[in-house]
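This section describes the prediction task in plain terms. A model, or a person checking by hand, is given the sequence of a single protein chain and must write out its three-dimensional structure as a string of tokens. No templates, partner chains or ligands are provided. The sample shown here is typical of the held-out split.
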Amino acid sequence: MKRRTLLSLAAAGAVSALTPAWAAKKTKKADKPLKILILGGTRFIGLHMTSYALERGHTLTFFNRGKTKTDRYPDVERILGDRNGQIDGLKDRKWDVVIDNSGYVPRHVRASAELLAPNVKRYVFVSSISVYPNFSVPRGEKSEVGKLADETVEKVDGETYGPLKALCEKATLDVYGGRGTVIRPGLIVGPDDNTDRFTYWPARAARGGEFIAPGSPKDAFQVIDVRDLAEFTINAVENGYAGTYNLVSNVNGFKFGELTDACIASAKKRAKPAAEPKAVYLPTDFLEEQKVEPWSEMPVWLPAKGDEAAFASTSNAAALAKGLKITPIAKTVDDTLEWHLTRPKDEQEKLKSGIAADKEATVLAAWKAKKS
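The expected answer:
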């Protein structure tokens, strides 16, 4: 599966019944409580934005189709509707801020933006760094974005996802101008995300035994902890930050060796696997020979070459200047594993990302045979 396809799943996450220990913290109340409308709100990033916004003392409303059930935040007002033409429930309502977590089609974003514009002070659109056509060179907020030959296309797939998000950004800023804010997260990780892109690594360490790690422990990667994304977004609406912001960890700030070490330490503490977990790093060329796919079978990781040569070099300078915080990778790992171990057994055992156990065993055996 392509990197873009997996990034496009950023808002798809599991829903927990109760607010867990890792989500409970004391946060100072905002000086001025706001009325915030979240378009979406009951999945992964929406849950964490809701948590932080409520801690800050804001009042929230969710607008969605009501198809994703959650026992969290039962007191939050919900307006039922569908972005594909059924948005009348938003008419004649006033909010200070709209956070659009669920916009993938420019027509939908423009419709909600125009309907709400007279009664809303700021519109925040959550986009993606997939708007950049490739990562052959380092990217910043002023880098070119991908384009569609036919801008009427509405099918969202691995090829169209990024350009469609770019058109959604344009629709937001066309309507709101300086009252618009665009946030471009990288791979969003942390508790509640059952796409298993990042979850795979602590979950695999928790199973114990030798496991494949890709490339080199020195290979860099960038992610954004969902709680850092949530905090930055709510701070942005409180302070009226306009413009566009890449939300990723620091350039070359995280290395794969740190990730696997953190996963092993967390697994020993929380899962206590019968067999000692051990990362076996396999060279890129050997993984290619064995047809082990970067990103899908080796989540989070891409070899730094070609169109992905600078994938770990996306600038976050603009967001850092506005207070973006980066959670240490060990904490993200530990909190993710703590959450993962509360999931139903079938979800724990059938991960949606990562190399299959039988293939992993075959590849490890081939590596040992080659070495000997």
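For orientation: Confidence is low (pLDDT under 50) at residues 8-18.
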